[in-house]
Amino acid sequence: MTKPTLEVKSGFSRLRVDLTYQGTNFSGWAKQPNERTVQEEVEKALSMITQTKVATIVAGRTDAGVHAKHQVIHTDLPTQTDINNLAFRLNQILDADIRVLTAQWAPDNFHARFTAISRTYQYKIIDAGKVTAPLDRHDSTEWFRPLDIELMNSGSKLLLGAHDFFAFCKFREGGSTVKNLITFNWHRDEKDVVICEISADSFRYNMVRNLVGAAVCVGEGRFKPEWMLDTLKNKERISDSYVFPAKGLTLISVQYPPVEQYLSNYENYLATQENSEDEG
C-alpha cells in the first residue's frame, strides 16, 4: 500500500467540508457500484459546481443506514476555484437527507482522516418494549427487555483505554484492532431513551455496534459486567447476533488537534493505525 501523504499538489488548495446526513436511504458513505452512497452524491455535487473531477477523503466511513450529525471530509481543488457561498450552492443541489454545514479552505497539512484525534458516536435504544415515536424511528433501535444502565456502565468502563478490540470487530483483512477507547458510557434522556456515547481514536468495522450489543447483554442480565472484559482479553469474536442495527448509530463529531499538531498526529496515526478502517 502506498503511504498516504499530506502534500497538496502545486496549484491546488485543500478544501474542508463539514456535513450532516440521515443514513436511512444510503448504502453507507463509500462509493459502491449501482448503490446510492453519501460519497457519490457529495462528489457529484462538488464536481458540478467546481467543474473539476473531485475525489474526497472522509474522517470516518459510516456503514449502510448509519447517520452523521457532523462528518468531515476534504478534497484538493485548483487554487483559483471560487468557493464563495459553496455550502449554500451545494445544498441547492443535494437531496434533503444531506446538508453541508461549512465549506472552507483548510491548511495544506489538514487531512480529514489522518489528522483527526478521535471520533464520537451515539447509539439510541428504546427499551422495555416501549412504543417508538414516529420522529424517533429512523435514529433509534427498539429492544423488548428493560435495560439496567448501572450494569451497562459497570461493564463498559472496564474497556476504557488502549486495548486490542479484536473480539468486537467484524473480520476484515489487514489493519490494526488496537484502539484507544476514550469514552463509553450510558444514560437515559428526558424521554427515557437509552443513550450510549462512545469515542475512540478510531474504530474498526462494526466495532461500535458490537460493543453496544455486548453492553445490552449485560444490561438485560444475561451476563455479568466482567464478561465484557473477559471477552476482550480472550480475543474470541462475539456472535454476530450481538451486532445492533445500523439505524440507531450516529456519528456525532470528529475531533482535531491544533493546527501545529497536524503533522505529528498524522505520523502517529500512520504508525499505529495504518490500513485500519474507520467505521462504526
UniProtKB/TrEMBL annotation:
Belongs to the tRNA pseudouridine synthase TruA family. The active site is at 63 (nucleophile). Substrate binds at residue 121. Pfam families: PseudoU_synth_1. Its EC number is 5.4.99.12. InterPro entries: PsdUridine_synth_cat_dom_sf, PsdUridine_synth_TruA, PsdUridine_synth_TruA_a/b_dom, PsdUridine_synth_TruA_C, TruA/RsuA/RluB/E/F_N. Keywords: Isomerase, tRNA processing. This is tRNA pseudouridine synthase A. Residues 21-114, 157-257 form the Pseudouridine synthase I TruA alpha/beta domain.
